[in-house]
Amino acid sequence: MPPIRVGIVGLGKIALEEHIPALMENDAFTLAAAVSVRASLPHIPVFTTVEAMLDAVPDIDAVAICTPPQAHYAPAKLALERGKHVLMEKPPCPTLAEFDALSAVAQAKGLTLFQTWHAREAPAVAAAAEWLSARKVTGGRVVWKEDVRHWHPGQNWIWKEGGFGVLDAGINAISILTAIMPEPIFVEAAHLFVPDNSANPIAAAMVFRTASGAAIEAEFDFRHHGIQSRLVEIETEKGTLDLVRFSAERGMSQIWSEVGSQSQEYAVLYRRFATLIAEGRCDIDKRPLELVIEALCVAGRTSVAPFEE
Q1: Which of 122, 188, 200 minimizes the C-alpha distance to 161?
Q2: What angle do CA 273, 274, 275 make, to 5 degrees?
Q3: Long-range contacts of range 41-46, CB-CB < 8 Å, 24 or more positions apart?
Q4: Which is the catalytic residue, given 77, 90, 109, 145?
Q5: Is pTM beyond 0.70 here?
Q6: Of these four, 23, 162, 224, 282, which has the most CB atoms within 10 Å of its CB?
Q7: Could you confirm whether 136 is annotated as catalytic?
Q8: How far apart are CA 253 and CA 60, in angstroms?
Q9: Alpha carbon of 230 to those of 160, 222, 280: distances in Å?
Q10: Which domains can be identified in the chain, with CATH numbers?
Q11: Number of alpha carbons in the 13 Å side-chain half-sphere of residue 54
Q12: Tens-place pLDDT, residues 231-268
């Protein structure tokens, strides 16, 4: 079977460091073209618009959307309308209406739309979900602290409308929660800390509540310095699951939360994309996005010092 010919839209940090290496190492794919207004790739044609790429390279089979979330909808819709499978980087579109519209187009045309949640692909996540499935959750805590200057250097889109701010990272933690929890969770309360020169928060505190009443407290912060701080602890009547210790005790090939673990996660994403295409299926879980939007709706806000790069 010939490899799936992929066009990548957006050649920023995430595409260059994660998507392209994962794609190039997977024999199911070949990189056929790309879209960028500034960057270039050796031996690969790069176009300035998605339409130009699809016109010039019509035998592209699939498109990977690696732009900021504000620019997900239009290129994904165009690719689907041209009969291409679509993989979308997280966060998804800024609104549920756009996300639902893309899902409807993909399903109507029998194409694969894969909304990725790379943080879920760490080996510990599936194992943790299985462990929790036989237990009653009584509480929990999530801490997700990163240095935005390290993970998003010079990326002003993250502070503009639709850019999510610290919830660009927080949605990773939320995607893990929705994957491992044995029952649905809802937003009970939230508070955002928003720089005076930003539309989006640089830090956030939330409380999630399970359907049976357990509280999961969450803290997200982009002002962290040094090594990232990521913690997921879920308390049950039969003990506490600490995701870092849990992965270490089970000899996972990559300890969860370790720096550099994303490369393994993206390799899994592209293997899954190939399988979804082969089986003619979509993977369009939108619950992490729904929870972020719920939090933005109910949150209180505090203004903090302007963010300076």
Answers
A1: 200
A2: 90
A3: 41/11, 46/11
A4: 90
A5: yes
A6: 23
A7: no
A8: 34
A9: 25, 12, 35
A10: 4-115 (3.40.50.720), 122-258+290-304 (3.30.360.10)
A11: 19
A12: 999 999 999 999 988 888 877 756 566 555 677 899 99
